[in-house]
Amino acid sequence: MKKIVFAAMALLSLFSFKAADAQVSVSLGINIGSQPAWGPVGYDYARYYYMPDIDVYYSVPTHQYVYYQNNSWIKTSVLPARYGNFDPYQSYKVVINEKDPWVRNNFYRTKYATYKGRRDQIIIRDSRDEKYRNHWDNGKHKGWDKQKYKKQKNDDGDDDQGNGNGHGKGHGHKDKD
C-alpha cells in the first residue's frame, strides 16, 4: 500500500511540475499586452527596447528604464531630468531579447548608432492591428471599430494613416545576439 501511495504522489508531483513548466513557457512567449503604446509594432514578445537616441534600455516586463550613471547601470520607472526632451513616441526602438543587454552596451551602441534620429518606426499606438486592441483606448483609437475602418478605407482607398496601409512591419530590429 505504501508503494502505491508513494508512486501516486510521485506521479502527481510530476504532472504538477509539467503543468507549471507549460505555464511558464507560454507566459514567456507573448507579452503584447504589457508592451507600452510607444513600442514598435510587429513583436509578440519583447524583453527590452534599446533606444539609440539616448543610449538607454527599457525593460518591458518590469516597466523600468535602465541607464548609465556614475559608473553603474540604474533601473528606474522614470527617466531623470537630463532626458527631459526625450519622447519615446518619436524615437526609434530596437527589440532585444537578451538578459541584461547593457552588459554588452558597447556592442549595441555601435551596432545601432545609425538609428539615432530615425523617426520612421510605426508604434503600437498607431497600429490598427487586432492584436494591439488593448491599446485602442489611448485616444487615437477611442471608439474605432473595424466596420467603420473598412468603410473609410473602401471609400477613399486609404486608411488615414498616411502610408497606405497602417500595418507596417515595425521597422524594428529583433536582436537575439
From TrEMBL:
**Compositional bias of kind Basic and acidic residues:** 134-155
The annotated regions of Basic residues compositional bias extend over 168-177
Q: So which residues are the signal peptide here?
A: 1-22
The annotated region (Disordered) lies at 134-177
* Protein's recorded name: Uncharacterized protein
Q: Which organism is it from?
A: Mucilaginibacter ginsenosidivorax
Keywords attached to this Swiss-Prot or TrEMBL record, sorted alphabetically, are: Signal
